[in-house]
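tool_call predict_complex ligand=zinc ion
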Amino acid sequence: NAASDATGSGTGVLGKKLTFNTTLNNGAYVLVDQSRGGGVETYSANNGSSLPGDLVSDADNSFTDKGQAAAVSAHYNIEKVYDYYKNNFNRNSYDNKGATLKSTVHYGNDYNNAFWNGQQMVYGDGDGRTFIPLSGSLDVTGHELTHAVTEYTAGLQYRSQPGALNESMSDVFGNFIEGNHDYLVGEDVYTPNTPGDALRSMSDPTKYGQPDNMSDYVHTGQDNGGVHTNSGIPNKAAYLTIESVGWDKAQKIYYRALTTYLSPRSQFSDARAALLQATSDLYGQGAEYNAVASAWDQVGVK
Ligand SMILES: CC(C)[C@H](Cc1cn(Cc2ccc(C(=O)O)cc2)nn1)C(=O)N[C@@H](CCCCN)C(=O)O
Ligand SMILES: [Zn+2]
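tool_result ok
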């Protein structure tokens, strides 16, 4: 906790007044939270594509300009994502060694996406029709940071079945972090003129064109072997598991499987085994164990 820690406030993407940690630096307040691990730092690419861009700053520590909303949401949401992993699993950032959490907003022009580039999180502003600034969604920021956690733990390769598991872990923990049990991905920032829709649904993947059973696995060369499509299968299994064993036990089972049993080339069947092993470790081979087995049976993965 550096001495220069300050408490800033501002307006987020969804119009909420948020407070967060800032740092006084050369007479201006910057979006640097030195209280969490190696820090949470939020930058702007100023609609360019060079990263990380410039630290977002404000003279009076009140980040209320419209142009600051994406940064305010990113900074605030990543503080919450850091706290989720620290408070629930005592994990200190994605590497468990206090790596600095860097986010860049205002990436590109009307950029309808968000991603983890191996070093940092990057958020587009959206075009205002398909997306509003994507850092406004806690499940999206949780999704992106979980890619980093996966990289430093299971290391699931980003293609075919391991890649779909990688994607699913990001959707699953994005939902745990958001905590509203809607099993949706990106709903807060997707199509502002169409309430209630989302990019993906874990409870009904088929609603947005994803398979929810191994019998419908999509073999394609697109998107690294359909990682954002075939993630519907493990996502559905996660939904069924959470509904059976409950939110708290499911979180512990998934975290233990991700950090202890999954590995770079794990296939869906290996994920079933990893989750069963994690369940057995934590809760024995009773109701929870049978629920996990049943979930994967229902999506056609033995
Ligand atoms: C997290 C989530 C909100 C985000 C959503 C997303 C956005 N897009 C592009 C996109 C653009 C337009 C539409 C449309 O309906 O018109 C839909 C999707 N595809 N996926 C997403 O899933 N991003 C990928 C980005 C991957 C980049 C390649 N590594 C990821 O983090 O896995
Ligand atoms: Zn992803």
